[in-house]
Design a protein that fits this description.
This protein is mostly beta strands. Helices cover about 10% and strands about 35% of the residues. The structure holds zinc ion.
Length: about 270
């Protein structure tokens, strides 16, 4: 059963934060007599997570990229072979800016070797985010991967030595090296590596395009292909890659859009 898991509509609707870098939750059950097969949905030409409620309704849980323009968005819905377009609106969100001075430019102006390495590693990670497995997530409200205070928020606009960098794609927790990292939902490890920027990194596929990434780990305790239970320890916090100190960086991706993990742990601020 692909859709064995069901959720309360309240739980699903609590994720509705339709901003760039947020999530839109849309009821796509449709009208029509009797129960049709599970609908499917696509956004920006990518498959979208569709979750069933305990009352038999279907909701699309759409990740909105940070780069999304503030205009009408289109969700392509398919029910029993019939396609339709559902329009939804997003609102703007102002993200904070941060200027960081680094002593050396090693991680700002990359050498040709480092650039080639970065591009190789980026391809692997981009591919991981595009995976879409049929399994429904075990839980849609996620557990915190570590216990500890939040530090850098998602979406922070960063400048390193005055050069603009990609906005912060995840959420940071200020926790010491060695803190165990728990998988926030069940899932399968789809990629592990030790990368130029992200350091020791684990990707977990929670199902239907919901994918977590954990970076800067000191140790990785899992292997690619391994199935993880909710709460299972996958590694320990560290300071590998481009960091100024030990912390956990956690990304959450839906339909290949990195979204604010705070939404899934009840910590979102608009
Ligand atoms: Zn971070």
């Amino acid at each position: 059963m692909t859709h064995a898991t069901s959720f309360s509509a309240e739980q699903l609707k609590s994720l509705h934060q339709p901003v760039p870098g947020g999530v839109a939750v849309l009821d796509i059950t449709g009208t029509g007599q009797g129960q049709t097969p599970a609908p499917t949905a696509r956004y920006l030409n990518k498959p979208v997570l569709v979750a069933r409620t305990d009352t038999g309704r279907w909701f699309a849980i759409v990740g909105i990229p940070l780069s999304a323009p503030i205009e009408k968005q289109e969700l392509e819905v398919s029910r029993g072979g019939k396609k339709s377009i559902e329009i939804f609106l997003i609102r703007d969100k102002k993200y904070r800016e941060q200027r960081i001075t680094l002593k050396t430019n090693k991680h700002v102006d990359l050498s040709p070797e480092d650039l080639a390495r970065y591009e190789r590693e980026k391809k692997l990670q981009d591919d991981a985010y595009q995976q879409f497995s049929a399994q429904s997530p075990s839980n849609i409200l996620l557990d915190r991967p570590v216990k500890g205070p939040l530090s850098s928020p998602f979406g922070l606009k960063r400048f390193f030595n005055d050069q603009p960098r990609a906005p912060h794609s995840g959420l940071d927790f200020a926790v010491p090296t060695g803190t165990p990292v728990q998988s926030p939902a069940a899932g399968r490890v789809i990629l592990v590596g030790d990368y130029f920027f992200n350091g020791k990194t684990v990707f977990v596929d929670h199902g239907q395009g919901m994918i977590s990434m954990f970076c800067h780990l000191s140790t990785i305790d899992v292997k690619s292909g391994q199935q993880l239970a909710r709460g299972q320890i996958l590694g320990k916090v560290g300071a590998t890659g481009r960091v100024t100190g030990a912390h956990l960086h956690w990304n959450v991706s839906l339909n290949d859009a990195r979204v604010d993990p705070a939404i899934f742990i009840g910590m979102f601020t608009s």
